[in-house]
Amino acid sequence: MVRVLFGLVVAVATVSNAQNIAVTGVPTKPGPNGAVPIRREFRDLQKNFPDQFNLFILGLNDFQAMNEKDMQSYYQISGIHGMPYKPWNGVVSTSDWEETGGFGGYCTHSSILFAPWHRPYIALWEQNLYASVQRVAARFPAGRLRNKYVAAAKDFRSPYWDWAMKPPNNGDAFPSLFVSRNISVIGTDGRNKTVRNPLHRFDFHPVNPSAGDFDESFSRWNYTIRYPNAAEFGVSHDEVISGILANEMASLRSNVGLLLMSYKDFDAFTYSQWDSETDPGRYGSLEDVHNRIHDVTGGRGHMSYLSVSAFDPLFWMHHINVDRLWAIWQDLQPNSFMSPKPAPYPSTFSTNWKQTEDRNSPLIPFWDNTGSKFWTSEEIRNSTTTFGYAYPETQEWLYNGNNTAYQASIKSAVSKMYQMNVFNRAMDDMRPVSKRSSLSARRRQQQTDGPVPPPLQHLAPNNTYTEYIFNIRASKIGMGDSFRIFAFLGPYDKSNPANWHMEKNLVGRVSILSRDMGNNNNSTAGSPRMDPSTLMTSGTIPLTSALLADIIMQDNFMEGSEPLQSLTPEKVVPYLQKNLDWKATMFGSDEEVDLMEIPMLEISVASTSVKLTDEGIPEFESEWVVQKEATMGRAGGMVDEQTCHGNYC
Ligand SMILES: *[C@@H]1O[C@H](CO)[C@@H](O)[C@H](O)[C@H]1NC(C)=O
Ligand SMILES: *[C@@H]1O[C@H](CO)[C@@H](O)[C@H](O)[C@H]1NC(C)=O
Ligand SMILES: *[C@@H]1O[C@H](CO)[C@@H](O)[C@H](O)[C@H]1NC(C)=O
Ligand SMILES: *[C@@H]1O[C@H](CO)[C@@H](O)[C@H](O)[C@H]1NC(C)=O
Ligand SMILES: *[C@@H]1O[C@H](CO)[C@@H](O)[C@H](O)[C@H]1NC(C)=O
Ligand SMILES: *[C@@H]1O[C@H](CO)[C@@H](O)[C@H](O)[C@H]1NC(C)=O
Ligand SMILES: *[C@@H]1O[C@H](CO)[C@@H](O)[C@H](O)[C@H]1NC(C)=O
Ligand SMILES: *[C@@H]1O[C@H](CO)[C@@H](O)[C@H](O)[C@H]1NC(C)=O
């Protein structure tokens, strides 16, 4: 928002305390109308801003190569999140995490501080990447080339990776740019050359700059890794990610759209903790979709573990997108912000379990630009311009203070990008690739004089239909390690858990990121053993697009069922009883987990009514109804009030 903190932004130049590294983002003086440089989707940066992209690769290599003992190095900044569980920049622990077997990183998860804490964290990373970008730009040969790169470097901001949008030009779901070992650039000598790709991995140099930075299990890795395979030590198999992600992208897209367009409350939108007040329409969260990306891209590599994920360069591309989604949402709901909550179990490096967290809680260890106190959520809530950037969707200054017009532009952009008109999306998915142009979409719109394409209009009388979501709730800590629940609609091979992520009838997953304590056995530490209900979590998977595809195809259902004909609950609930299924596997083994062993697990389906505006933008009813019969009486499903479930009642 352009309620810009001009004073603060200018004050950046006069940081006083030399010892405390101030988190400023890139010091920026906004233009006369409030304009600041844009963090762009990296494929946009690569295609349309090739000089900045070139600097990004060279700069990230420079940043990663910094001496790991330097507090502003890539290594040290990544180490704030989890391991090495040591003070960063002299900010010592103020919590009981060591005695209670808590989590030794500063990062906040399952907490109302989840989204705000990561904002200055990324700003700190970006201000140092920016410094590297300036350094490499200045190394080009004097003259035209150097002038060009120095000019491009000035407005450089880190790109992000939008993992939910349809990849441009039918590109890979997991961009090959993350997978290739080497990459072609124009080097600082002005020549074309191949360099190591800093987006593929970070090379530790050395692995343990200070004794014991990593425990034995993580000291095995000389670099960050994705999908390691026991048979070939040290080989990243990130080429498998694209297929896995492609299989779930439609569901991610629906999930992001649902969050941005239907969640109105900050606490519900941002973080994944569940309590008995949680509304059936609010089981999802930004943190929940964010967890899925850690799961899908990690494959038991660094991204899978909160304790080490920040060392993988992907973490930053991912979390900048998470920050972007928060910024977009916050500008749609400027009046909603966090309410005080007790910090979740267990303690972290700087927070004790049950300590109250609110908008004025210090975001430790991020010093504000005075270097004398920590940033708070309230101070960074309204404006990414505090840290000198905006996103393509949040250029509020373009609307001259007309907030109605600004919000309308956000809704329109979000609806398009995440294909929120499920009927148009279904038609698009059926069309051969060559015909899927925005032009034909526009023509279709003109012809039909309404948001729903004619062949599907009977499914949405008055442009209104019923939306369905799959909800899960479970103990976050009760399994002692991370696990995930897969949802399927239609037949799949139940006998092959390791392949469930590739099943064509997989609708999506909810990933429960347990706070691993570095692979030791104290992850539910504190004796006696913690009650699993101490930390409850929830997640959601939208079902409507998958149901719609079944209506259109008419041939994708389980034995004993009938093809689905409409989206009304009278038809959909019996269809779900026969065709909806769910399974769980552990992160660590990909082995099936007996659903009855997951403490406090409850799986349910909820629905609400949605009206599409003439522009095809969905408007969700606020009331959601639990469709109890859809999952009643099955393992993990809804139970009668009196029935006990597993060991829990
Ligand atoms: C990547 O570049 C290095 C040298 O920088 C070279 O040794 C290696 O063969 C290259 N790998 C590939 C796959 O091109
Ligand atoms: C680098 O290679 C690209 C094509 O791969 C070419 O267009 C460009 O002119 C080359 N630049 C230099 C400085 O050699
Ligand atoms: C890791 O690096 C060390 C030191 O350079 C080397 O001795 C070791 O072989 C490397 N391990 C692997 C798995 O690459
Ligand atoms: C942020 O916006 C809210 C709502 O418009 C306002 O009440 C609050 O004072 C703003 N905070 C800051 C730091 O500008
Ligand atoms: C703001 O924008 C809306 C929608 O674009 C428009 O209808 C309205 O007239 C504008 N308001 C002002 C004060 O310009
Ligand atoms: C559609 O809307 C009109 C007017 O709002 C109403 O009279 C009609 O009953 C609605 N039809 C259906 C099928 O809901
Ligand atoms: C953790 O417990 C398992 C089984 O109880 C055991 O095999 C493993 O060695 C233990 N690991 C550590 C680090 O103590
Ligand atoms: C686990 O906790 C026990 C008792 O608190 C402690 O003795 C042991 O060293 C811890 N193990 C690890 C791997 O941290």
UniProtKB/TrEMBL annotation:
Q: Which keywords fit this entry according to its UniProt record?
A: Copper, Melanin biosynthesis, Metal-binding, Monooxygenase, Oxidoreductase, Signal
Region called Disordered, residue ranges: 432-460
Biological process annotations from GO: melanin biosynthetic process
Return the InterPro entries for the record.
Di-copper_centre_dom_sf, Tyrosinase/Hemocyanin, Tyrosinase_C, Tyrosinase_Cu-bd
> Would you indicate the residue range of the signal peptide?
1-18
Question: What EC number(s) does its UniProt record assign?
Answer: 1.14.18.1
One Pfam family of this chain? Tyrosinase_C
Indicate whether Metal-binding appears among the record's keywords: yes
* Residue ranges of domain Tyrosinase copper-binding in the record: 312-323
Q: Does the keyword S-adenosyl-L-methionine apply?
A: no
**What reactions does this protein catalyze?**
L-tyrosine + O2 = L-dopaquinone + H2O; 2 L-dopa + O2 = 2 L-dopaquinone + 2 H2O
Q: Which GO terms describe its molecular function?
A: metal ion binding; tyrosinase activity
Mind telling me what this protein is named? tyrosinase
